[in-house]
Design a protein that fits this description.
The protein has two domains: 2-130 and 282-349, 3-Layer(aba) Sandwich (D-Maltodextrin-Binding Protein, domain 2); 134-248 and 360-397, 3-Layer(aba) Sandwich (D-Maltodextrin-Binding Protein, domain 2). Helices cover 46% and strands 16% of the residues. The chain has helices spanning 2-17, 33-46, 60-73, 84-92, 100-103, 140-145, 154-164, 178-187, 204-218, 230-238, 251-258, 293-306, 309-319, 333-338, 343-346, 361-376, 382-397; strands at 20-26, 50-56, 79-83, 119-120, 123-124, 127-132, 134-139, 172-175, 222-225, 244-248, 265-268, 278-287, 352-354.
Length: 399
């Protein structure tokens, strides 16, 4: 009998020492997948309380769809890597768990606004892990050949596009996806949402922006691409079929890793008007309802580990995401010295602001993208298509 009691105690002790497993669905594809999973392995090996179990579930949109399906049918993870514009929907649907009670005292050197991307209604639901801002990419060889300087305003972009356009190539790439459009609107001092975070597509700045882009397409100095043609936008640029465009800085390492670039790549700050902003986008860790208290604590512990300066530096060098804390900057000095263009994105940090947090975004963004495509590819009246998109979005908000 005594040996049985000893055995039971031993089994109980072993179970008590087993780390809490935290299934984690992440959306960090190449080049971020390898460094993220390396950080996870380091975290798992350096402590015995928790074990993060990662699974890659596609990009932000694919991951969001898989999560919604899992929430309906069962099998959702404890921890999810969500795009920050999806966080509002998760909070509204009571899917995300508030984390303030687990955070404790955080280092005081996080850059202004970065932690706000994970907050709604004054509570922390997301732990930002990969935030990016857009940059202006251009063909530096063609600019030099035409004697063009780096555009400082959107009128400069038009002038450059006129000079660069030929029979075989267009000066600028206009993308009708919502992110690219928001970049343009915010840089001109506008917003596609009002002060309450609701759709505001008929705001004069929004209409003015779409008309501006449509005018470039009509003048035949810009190539219009929709979200389904995103890969062609990159191909056009690399094959010198277009010479300028705006994209998240995280596209940069993907471009350079795909194939040798046949020209000098120019990287500049996004042109802005006075008061203009650049959108802060990216991913955040979300603990789902149904996760245990220990899993929530483990998720926060993992995030704090990922936010250590050495891990931030490793993550930034692979992905070109923004460094979350000032303490990581000394570890990135050599990275910036190797290529001074890498400082360009960070130079915009004081002008960065969260791009979208409306819970209904996952429904109404398609209305806006449809309006953009109709105006930019179908030459429909810009104001009219935006008014129609506004009516459709407002009907969703009123439900």
């Amino acid at each position: 009998m005594r040996w049985l009691m000893v055995l039971l105690v031993g089994v109980g002790w072993a179970l008590a020492q087993r780390p809490v497993e935290i299934p984690f669905w992440h959306t960090a594809g190449p080049p971020g997948q390898e460094p993220l999973e390396e950080i996870i392995r380091d975290f798992n090996s350096r402590q015995r309380d928790y074990r993060i179990v990662p699974s890659f579930v596609g990009d932000y949109r694919e991951g969001g769809l898989k999560l919604l399906a899992a929430l309906r049918s069962g099998g959702a993870p404890a921890l999810f890597h969500a795009e920050i514009s999806f966080l509002g929907r998760m909070v509204q649907d009571n899917v995300a768990q508030p984390l303030d009670e687990y955070l404790g005292n955080l280092p005081g050197d996080f850059y202004p606004g970065f932690l706000e991307t994970g907050k709604l209604r004054g509570r922390t639901y997301g732990l930002p892990i990969g935030l990016s801002i857009p940059v202006f990419f251009y063909n530096a060889d063609q600019f030099a050949a035409k004697g063009l300087g780096v555009p400082r305003s959107w009128n400069d972009v038009v002038t450059a596009a006129q000079r660069l356009t030929t029979r075989a190539a267009k000066g600028y790439t206009v993308s009708s996806d919502i992110y690219s459009f928001v970049v343009m609107v915010m840089s001109r001092g506008g917003s596609i949402v009002d002060s309450q975070g609701r759709p505001d597509f008929t705001n004069p700045k929004v209409v003015e922006t779409l008309e501006f882009l449509q005018d470039m397409v009509r003048k035949n100095i810009a190539q219009s691409r929709n979200i389904a043609e995103a890969q062609f936008s990159v191909a056009d640029f690399l094959r010198t079929k277009t010479f300028m465009g705006v994209a998240p800085i995280t596209l940069w390492p993907l471009i350079e890793n795909r194939a040798p670039i046949p020209f000098r790549l120019g990287v500049a700050a996004v042109p802005r008007t006075e008061g203009g902003k650049v959108p802060l986008a990216g991913g955040t860790l979300v603990v789902l309802r149904g996760a245990s208290e220990q899993q929530a604590r483990g998720a926060v512990a993992f995030w704090r580990f990922a936010m250590e300066p050495a891990n931030i530096a490793k993550w930034v060098k692979a992905t070109y995401y923004m460094p979350m804390r000032r303490a990581a900057q000394p570890l990135l000095e050599d990275f910036y010295k190797e290529d001074p263009r890498r400082r360009v994105a960070f130079s915009q940090v004081e002008h960065a602001d969260v791009w979208l947090q409306d819970p209904e975004f996952t429904i109404w963004y398609s209305f806006l993208e449809d309006a953009l495509e109709r105006a930019l590819k179908g030459n429909a009246n810009a104001r009219q298509v935006l008014e129609e998109a506004q009516r459709r979005a407002s009907s969703v908000e009123r439900r």
